[in-house]
Amino acid sequence: MIEVLRAGPLTTVQDLGRPGLAHLGVGRSGAADRPSLRLANRLVGNPEDAAALETTFGGLAVRATCATTVALTGAPCPVRVGGRARDGNAPVAVAAGEVVELGMPPAGVRTYLAVRGGLAVPPVLGACATDVLAHLGPDPVRDGDRLPTGHPAGPTPGVDVAPVRALPSEPLLRVVPGPRVDRFSPAALEVLGSRRFEVTAASDRVGVRFSGPSLERSRVEELPSEGLVEGAVQVPPDGQPVVFLADHPVTGGYPVIAVVHPQDLPVVAQLRPGQSARFAVQPALG
To answer: Top-level CATH class of 2-147?
Structure first.
């Protein structure tokens, strides 16, 4: 069991989500930065899909009611366990009664806290992920919550620390032309692939909103709602792109000019308001 002393700006329970249900109107959800969740679980000897905590801009403080092992991955942040500074991307022993505290990450947005045995919260539609748009899964974590932990599934890995690349200050995000690129002017895709865009504060687990040069449409009439995927670059009437993340809607009526490469989505999930990024347009998949 872990007790939440301070939940921070937004902390949710996440696993790898509930894929394969979009035809029923249910999005995948799950960790926005899945490689970081997988790594955190591996470091404490959990299956990669075990439920853990996803924090937003740190601020989390939890107390372990019994001795355990934790690992923190994703956005690097100051970590103190029992009042002592500890490192991320490594297994950390926590004695019964000790408090794990996360500060504000200097880079990135989301930090993952995995506990040995995983979080044993009730699954909804086969997953423990919190979908903030569809309101599926556990409620966002609040001060005073008590979260049960499961039984370890195997031995603790003999790893001291995992090498992890630093988050890029201005990432280059690979995209391929989307299914509605024909609804934009011939220059729109060139603009997307040659100019800098800045992340706005109106970004969350649903999607990252960018500001920059307008992506001009050639056709102004709206589409009937159609299916959306994670990584879709949708363009509302204001011409400013939105990259959808884990809790994206399963349908939408604005045209999708491009789709971000799946390997670059964890980078998108760690972009902060005010940070800039560029898009690299790749050839369409044949």
So the answer is: mainly beta
Written out in words, the top-level CATH class of the domain with range 172-281 is mainly beta
- Secondary structure in 3-state letters for 124-164: ECCECCCECCCCECCCCCCCCCEECECCCCCCCCCCCCCCC
Distance CA 242, CA 117 (A): 36
Q: Where in the chain do CATH 2.60.120 domains reside?
A: 2-147
CA distance 108 to 55: 11
Calpha distance 94→82 (Å, rounded): 8
Which tens digit of pLDDT belongs to each residue from 203-251?
A: 999 999 999 999 999 988 888 899 999 999 999 999 999 999 999 999 9
Structure pTM? Answer: 0.95
Question: Mind listing the pLDDT tens digit for each residue in 61-83?
Answer: 999 999 999 999 999 999 999 99
pLDDT digits (tens, 9 = 90+) for 20-57: 999 999 999 999 999 999 999 999 999 999 999 999 99
Q: In 10 A of CB 273, how many CB atoms?
A: 13
C-alpha separations of 257 from 72, 145, 185, 272 in Å = 35, 42, 11, 23
DSSP letter, residue 24: G
Taking CA 108 as the corner, what is the angle to CA 106 and CA 113, rounded to the nearest 5 degrees? 95
* 16 confidence band (pLDDT: 50, 70, 90): very high
Q: In whole angstroms, what is the distance from residue 236 CA to residue 243 CA?
A: 11
Supply the DSSP symbol for 186.
T
Q: Where in the chain is the domain with CATH 2.40.100.10?
A: 172-281
